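Worked problem 6 (solution included).
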Amino acid sequence: MLPTMRYFWLGGLALTATVAACTVGGLFGGKRISYNEQIRPIVNAKCITCHGGIKKSGNFSMLFREEALAKAKSGKYAIVPGDADASELVKRLVSDDPELRMPLEHPPLSKDEINLIRDWIDQGAEWEDHWAYLPPKRGTDATTKSIDTFVRERLEQEGLKPAPEADRATLLRRVSLDLTGLPPTHQQATRFLRDTSPNAYEKLVDTLLASPRFGERWASMWLDLARYADSKGYEKDLERSIWTYRDWVIDAFNRDLPFDRFTLEQLAGDLLPATDAATYQRNLIATAFHRNTMANDEGGTNDEEFRNMALIDRVSTTFEVWQGTTMSCVQCHSHPYDPIRHADFYKFLAFFNNTEDRDIYNEKPKLSTFTPDNEQYLRRLMGWIRQRVPAEVATLPSDPLTGLGEQRSELLSRVGYRRIEAEDFDSTSRHIELWDNQTAIMQTTEGAFVGYDNVDLTGVSAITYRYTTSFSSFIELHLDRPDGPLISRTKIPATQDGAPGQWYNWKTYGTHRATVQPTSGLTRPGRHTVFLVFRKDKEFRSDLVHIDWFHLDVPQAPISRNPALRDSVERLTSIPAITTPVMRERPAHRARQAHVFIRGNWLTKGQPVQPDVPRTIGNVADKTMQTRLDMARWLVSRENPLTARVMVNRFWEQLFGYGLVETLEDFGTMGGRPSHPELLDALAVRFQDTYRWSMKKLLRELVLSATYRQSALVSKDLQERDPRNRLLARGPRVRLSAEQIRDQALAVSGLLNPAIGGPSVRPFNPTNDGWKNEKPESRHRRALYTFWQRTNPYPSMVTFDSPQRNLCVSRRIRTNTPLQALTTLNDTVYVEAAQHLARYMQRRGRTLPEQISAGYQRILFRQPSPAKLMLLKQLYAEATITTDKKGLTLVANAILNLDETLTK
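Solution. The predicted structure is:
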């Protein structure tokens, strides 16, 4: 028997375990061989590239047990459980023939590796599910053990001891930055530092958890996952109004919305039961999580192509956020390393395939909400109008979930205001391209015009178009489908004001009234889907028709007979709404069929699939999955082994700098192994069962632990042995996030605007001239509220490693570059902060040492050491010589740039 060393790399830490290897043909020292621990690492490193989810060379794959035990292309069995000598796999591993020996054209496996595989087969080739796909054990002593017990036990195994508790000033600043993203206020700091009671720290934690700043801090983490941005992406990257979703996230964290409900509302809020309009409205806004996908507004792009790209992104994002699973590669083939088949991707995509959004310019469907003032005015005006129309018109639907936006639309339709607007982007209209076959179909359903599939045609006698075009063409209206009953057909004349052959002025509009005859096809009054069909005339010089709106004329409607009512209706339509893209499900009769995309190409459709989840993740038995709500409930069910683990790991990483599983985005077989697996599972069980998915209760346990409260001071020996603190022998020491660095500077200088929520703001940005007109009071909002433009993100945020948010990002990779120092020394907001901090220092001290100490203490809550004080005094003296009276500002700037200031 020869001993061999097995290494598990946990970040920069190598842990060794001695295992007994065997001679060829001998059992593994009488011990059972673990597929997960000993065989899978060899397979993933040496075999699965050719025999896995991407390639199945020789029709042999090691991804699934049934595939590995099946007959290969040669007609032989690669693995014969219980008989390694009869297994073709072993023969190929030891062959001397370079044409037969595996891995082909790569170095051979070591003798120890071959012996492990041989003995594993002789023992029956038992398969094991990956640890992350196994449910955490419940009802054991381990689930009741404290965080500190797990950590101490591990430290004892390594011959280490935990660090002492950090000093109170350090602990005060650390926990405040972690829970609220801001340094403590002067009142909080004074109260805690003077409180000598045994539970002083616990009281501080509870105060921070109850702060409205808590929601802002944790929303910042979640918006990376949600790929939140205030623009659509791609080349045009036009603005998108979706900030109400960001505010929903802040509110959800502040309310401590249980994470299971937090999940259901974002993935399927439109399908959740609700008893009142306010709840239904909140649920709809939550679904904007998956409307954060990018949209392509470029001319000539295919909406269906980018609709499918959005669906693919939703699948990958859902798996990364809730399952810590990389799914992007499964778009094209089965997962290379994890037991997820190609078809599983599209079965999951089928959950999203029947939402109404489809990459159209106006981003419908949208939810309309109103500011409090506008909502009050809207209600008054609607009440006035309803008093002046017949009772059958005034009575609106009694559905308790009908929002004000829907009520306004219904009332307008009933009084006879049936104007269907073109896509509502600012004051311009939609260019409608006519195809080469001289016909273009523009469908109002979800498409070119507001009103789409709920157009009331009752009593309509004529249709008036407002348009511009350089050539005459025909407009047809069809009922329910493009080739459905014809409502009207009319020839619209050209509106060109230039010479023949020249381009025309788009601002030259014409209106054209087309009569509707019942005999022309309108035989079913009521609400219908309306299709516009444009046909070119024989002569034309342009391929563009510009439709602004069309109006349905109803002679018998109240608005047609009452000028005063008409004026009120016009005012009602002018009340601006806050429109948020949301998810809505298509009706069953318009359901789409999902297919597998061959090699990920949406144009090459394979077998049809029904909604389902990967059966290798958790035990879903024979449950039928049909809707997004079914899928969301599965994610937070006991049958799913990943969600609780993944979320506990995310919160841990935010506090300690590294997750218990370092690869937050990948819990698969190629991801990192947990540094403390039992601790991870115990916390996951507590999060789900004991805390009932309460995020605040979980965080409270983490920050109250002695592990979290340790001093971050580290010895040279421990630094060399565990540079990234995976063993948790000391407290966390991590650079602040991009948002926290900016917010801290604003807070300690007194510049921070404490307003919560509302539209995103544009602070001074040297790379974007369009941001110069922001209101002064908005320039100093928290970084969370900065307008996030995907193609041109706020520069200082990107410098400190914030993502563009084109895609879901689980963890930001920390860098250390000269640009970061240049930013905090010279960026406008940091210079402003230094100036205001200098004024504070001047007020708080009569002498220079007192002033410097006041600034230092304002940020770090302790006095500077004599050596630091001397250096800062020297800096002041040198700066005063060259900058006259700005010496204190430069000292303040230096304090804001200290390593201990930018580090937690």
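Discussion: Residues 1-28, 424-452, 498-507, 518-522 have pLDDT under 50 and may be disordered.
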